[in-house]
Amino acid sequence: MKSFRAQTLILIAIAFTLGMSEFIIIGVLGDIAHTFHISFAQVGFLTTVFALIYAISTPILSLLIGKRPLKQVMNVVLGIFICGNGLSALAPNFMVLTISRIITALVSGVTISITITFAPHIAPLTKRAWIVAWVFSGFSIASVFGVPAGTWLSGLLGWRLIFLLIAGLALLVLGSFDLALPGTLHQQPGQHFSEQFHILTDRRILLGVLIPVFNLGGVYVVYTYVTPILTNHFGYSLSFVTIFLVLYGIASLFSNQYSGNLAANHGLQRSLKFYGLQLVAMLLTSLCFNVAWVVMGAILIMGFTIYLAGSTLQLFYMSIAEADYPQSLVLASSFNPIFSNLGIAVGSACGSLIVGHLGMDALGFGGAALTASGLFTTWYLTFHLLKNHNYG
C-alpha cells in the first residue's frame, strides 16, 4: 500500500509539473509583454501555439512509442521537457521564447498520456477512477498553488526564474519516477503501425473527443484574458489577481475531484446539468461585464465545471481501447489531454480574435457558443449513441 501511495504521488507530481509549465503563461502574461515590449494578444498567442502543438504532436509521438518500455520513453520525453523550460528561462527574445514553448509542448502531451497509462496499471480495479481523477488533479493543484505562487514570484524576481524552477522540479520528479515505477509496462503492439489509428474510426470515440474541445474551448475564450480583465478593465492589482487565481485553482481542483464521483455513476449524463451552468456563466460574463463580482463569480463557476467530465471521458476512451483496440492503449490514454489542449487552442485563438475585433466584453458570448456545442454533443452521445452501453 505504501508503494502504491508513493507511486500515485509521483504520477500526481508529474501532472503538477506539466500543469505549471502549461498554465504559468496566464499568470505572467503581463510581465512577458513588458519584457519584450509586445501586446497582451501576442503573449496570449503563446497559449494557442502551446496547445496546438500539444494536440498535434501527442498522437504522433504516442503512435511512435510502439512496444517500447514506457519507462524508457518517459526518461526521454521528460528530459526534453526539462531542456525546453530551461530555454524558456534563458530566452533573449520573444521568438526564442516561442521556440522553447514549442519544444516543451511537443513532449508534454505524450508525457501525461504515459502517466495516465501507468495510473490504472498500478491501481486496484476499484480505485481506477480514483487514481485517474487524482492524476488529473495534479493540473488543478498547479492552478491552486503553482500558478499563483509563480505569478507572485514573477513580480518579485522575474518570470525567468519560474521556468528554471519548473525545470528543476521536473528533474526531481524524473528521478523519483525512475526509482518507484515499474519498468516492464508497454502497450500491445499491432501487426501494422496503421492499426493504432483504427480506434479513430469508432463513432463513439469521434463524438467523445469533441466534448473536451468544446468544454475547455469555451472556458479558455474567457480565461486566457483573466489577468487583463481584472487589471486593465476593473483596475485590480497583481496581488489581487494572484489571490483570484488561487480561488480559480481551488474551483478547478474541486472540479477534478468531483469528476471521480461522476465517473463512478453515469458521468456523462450527470455532467449535462453542469454544462448548462457553465453556459449561463458564459452569458453572464458578457451581459454583466461591468459588474466585477458577477464576472469573477462566473469565471469561478467556469473553473468548477471545466474538468467535471475528465475522469469519465478518460475511462470511456480507455475502456473502448482495452475492449476493441488494445494496440491503441497509449493513444487512447492521450485523447483527453490531446483534445483538451485542442480546445484550449481553439478557445484562446477565438478569444484573441474577439478581443481584437469586438472587445473583451464579447468574450462570454464566444465562450457560450462553444459550451452550447459541447452540451449538445454530450446529450447526443449519451442518449443516442450510448443508450445500449454501460459507458458514461
UniProtKB/TrEMBL annotation:
Coiled coil: none annotated. CDD domains: MFS_NepI_like. InterPro entries: MFS, MFS_dom, MFS_Efflux_Transporters, MFS_trans_sf. Keywords: Cell membrane, Membrane, Transmembrane, Transmembrane helix, Transport. Pfam families: MFS_1. The keyword Transport applies. The chain crosses the membrane at residues 40-64, 76-96, 102-122, 129-149, 161-185, 205-223, 235-254, 274-293, 299-317, 338-359, 365-386. Residues 7-392 form the Major facilitator superfamily (MFS) profile domain. It is a multi-pass membrane protein. This is MFS transporter. Signal peptide: none annotated. It is found in: Cell membrane. The lineage of its organism: Bacteria, Bacillati, Bacillota, Bacilli, Lactobacillales. Its main location: membrane.
